Fold:
Amino acid sequence: MSFFEYDQTKESSKPIELYKFSMGDNNWYYTSADKNITYDEIEYEAFPLKRGIIEQSPDLNRNSLKIETLRNFVIADFFKVSSPEKPILLTIIGFDRNEINEENYCILWTGRLMSCQWEELTCTFFCESLLTMFKRPALKKHYQLTCPYTLYGSACGLNKDLYKYEGIVTSINHATIEINIGSTPNDNFFNGGFLQYESPTGVPYFRYIKSQIGNTLILNQVPYDLSINDTIYCYPGCDHTMNTCKDKFDNLPNFGGFPWIPQLNPMTGDTVF
Structure:
């Protein structure tokens, strides 16, 4: 019998749900069942997960979903300081316990975790459907002086691995850390760049570098799960001006700004921007 056939025969139906959380190349597998479930050679760990009602409406904002669980849930750790650097995607798969196989399943919901609300013993994830992404504005490039491209992105064309600096953490004081990276670049070299490191469980974290003086970095957030003697990687930043693109990165052919826009209105003399 199919999942829908079991679902319609309420007396014999024993529905279970599998939850796959993904962030980049990292995946976590859980089930709301009372014991671990193996599906497609992957073991889904039993954990108390309670979701809200799944709605299907023309109004995509109504297709959101709430998931309640214990506050010690591993995914909740990514929201302790702020929202995670990368989106956490969620796929909910429905099965019937009578027949768990690759043919008897139904994808109940797909989306991403947007925020987390903490209670004394529990936490609640607020999720939105992936369909909402299709309603976002698509055009991002503007007629502007500076370059609109994301540093190390596809339009920028720079290979970030060629600009990677490896170092060791020597001191942590809230969002200020000191590192040892051998030959230290000039002050402000890493301004606007980012720091990358991995947690003890192998989860990648990223922090924006607000400023750099010598071996001292001031980050935009406290580096969660970072400890002294951990290995970090620093990537220099860019202020998106033509001079920086040319002198710092030698990437002028990919510069996306319009540096010769007139600064003054030729008719009135007022500033244009």
Observations:
- The longest strand covers residues 106-118.
